[in-house]
Target: Acyl-CoA reductase-like NAD-dependent aldehyde dehydrogenase
Amino acid sequence: MSFLEYAPAPESTAILNLKAQYGLFIDGEFVDGSGEVFDTISPATEEVIARIAQADASDVDRAVAAARRSYEKVWSRMSGSDRGKYLFRIARLVQERARELAVAESLDNGKPIRETRDVDVPLVAAWFFYYAGWADKLEYAGLGPKPRSLGVAAQVIPWNFPLLMLAWKIAPALAAGNTVVIKPAETTSLTAMLFAEILQQADLPPGVVNIVTGPGATGQALVTHADVNKVAFTGSTDVGRTIARQVAGTSKKLTLELGGKAANIVFDDAAIDQAVEGVVNGIFFNQGHVCCAGSRLLVQENVHDEVVDRLKQRLSTLRLGDPLDKNTDIGAINSAAQLERIRTLSDTGENEGAERWQLDCTVPDKGFWFRPTIFTRVSAAHSIAREEIFGPVLSVLTFRTPEEAVAKANNTPYGLSAGIWTEKASRMLALADRLRAGVIWANTFNKFDPASPFGGYKESGYGREGGRQGLTAYLESSGWQAPI
Ligand code: TAP
Model:
C-alpha cells in the first residue's frame, strides 16, 4: 500500500459499553417506560444499536413529579456554589468519557467522528464549565440582586446536535437553580442515556435531571404538563408554533430556537480562498443539519463564476462515507424521513429551473446518504431559496450592491444567522446593523462559544441561549433595572 493510499482504521466501537436496552431516567434511576420500546439505528448502516424505552403521559407525570420534589426539597435550597460543583463534576466526566461519547454520537447520529470529537463533545464540556462558573454569581445576571429560579423546566431537543443541544438546555437551567425533564429526539436518544450514566457518576441528587425518551407525543405531554414552569424547545418552526399556542395563556415561560435560512454574503474584495472554506463549512458541516447553516450563498455578481468554480473544486476533495472514519468529511443523513425531505426539495429546485451540481462520489449501498449539492441560477422566488432544506444543499444567488445584498439576505421569514465576507471592517459593521439575524459572523462561520448568546429574530424563535442572556431564560424577572 502506498503512503497516499494509507487511511487510519475507523474509530472502533469497542470503546462503547452499550446496553441492549435503555430505560427512562427518572429520579436518578433507569426505569421501564409504559410505551413500546423502539430501536435506535445507525443511519450509516441501518443496523440496530440499542432499544430505547418510550414514555407515555403517565411516565412524563412521574418525571415531572420527581423534578418537582427535587426542586422543592434539594436543588432550590442548595447554595449556588454547591450547584456549581455538580456542574463542574459533570463537565469533567464528559471530558473523561469524551472518546466514548464521540463514537456513540457519530454512530447514532451519522455525523463524522472528526466533528463529534473536535466540536460537539468539547463544546458540551465547555457549556457545563461555563455555567458552573455562573451558579454562584446569579446576582450579576442582570435581573436584580436576588434572582429566583423558575421551578421545573420542560425541555425538548432535536436530532442534529443531540448531546450539545442537551448541554445548551440543561447547563443554564441547573446553574440557575431549576430542575429539568428533557426529551431527546426519537432518532438520537443514545447519548442522552450515556449522559444519564454520567449524572449517576457525578452523584447528582435524584430528580434534578430526568430524561424521557419517545416520539413527538412524549414531547407534547411534557410541554403541556400543568406542573412545569418553563418550556424550552429547539426544533422546527411548525412544532414551535404548536407549542407557543399550547403554552399561551399559561404561566409558563417559553423560549424557542427554530429554523433558519442563513445568507453567507461574499463581496468581491473578500479573500476568496478563505471565503470558499467558510462557505463549505457553513453548509456542509454536519451534512447541513444545522439551524444556522449558510444555506444561501449571496455572491457579488462579478466574482460569481470564480467563487462557484472554486467551490466545486473544493467540494471535489470532500470524502463522503463511514462517520467513524477520521477521514470522512460528510457523514450520513440522520433518518430516511430527512433524506426524503432533502430529495424532494432538491428535485423541486431543478423543476423550478435552478441548475443542480452534485459531488461525483460513490455512495454506500446501505444507510441514508445525500451527495453535497450546489444549485446555481437560483432566484429569490425558488423554493430552495426560501425553505429550510436542512441538508447538504447550497443555493447560490447573486447581488450587485450592498443594499441588494441586505435586501436579499433579509428576504426570508427566518432570522437566525448570517455571514459576511469582505476585507472592509466598515462594511462588516454597516451590514451587521441592517441584517435581521440574531448571530452574524464576519470572515468566519459556525463559531460557537458558551459565553456568546445565540438565537433568532422573526420565525427563528425568541429568547437566547448561551452567555448571561441564556441564564435569564431560567430566572424570574423581578422588574429590577440595572442602574445606568
Ligand atoms: P422537530 O420535528 O420540530 O422535532 C424537535 C423535537 O420536538 C423532537 O424531540 C421531536 O420529537 C419533538 N416534537 C415533535 N412534535 C412535538 C410536539 N407536538 N410537541 C412537543 N415536542 C414535539 O424538529 P427536527 O426535525 O427534530 O429538527 C429539525 C428542525 O429543527 C429544523 O427546522 C431546524 O432548523 C430546527 N433546529 C433549530 C435549532 C435552533 S438552535 N434554532 C437547532 C436545531 C434544529 P421526535 O424526534 O420524536 O419527533
In short: The two ends are 69 Å apart (CA to CA). Confidence is low (pLDDT under 50) at residues 1-5. The first strand starts at residue 21 and ends at 22.
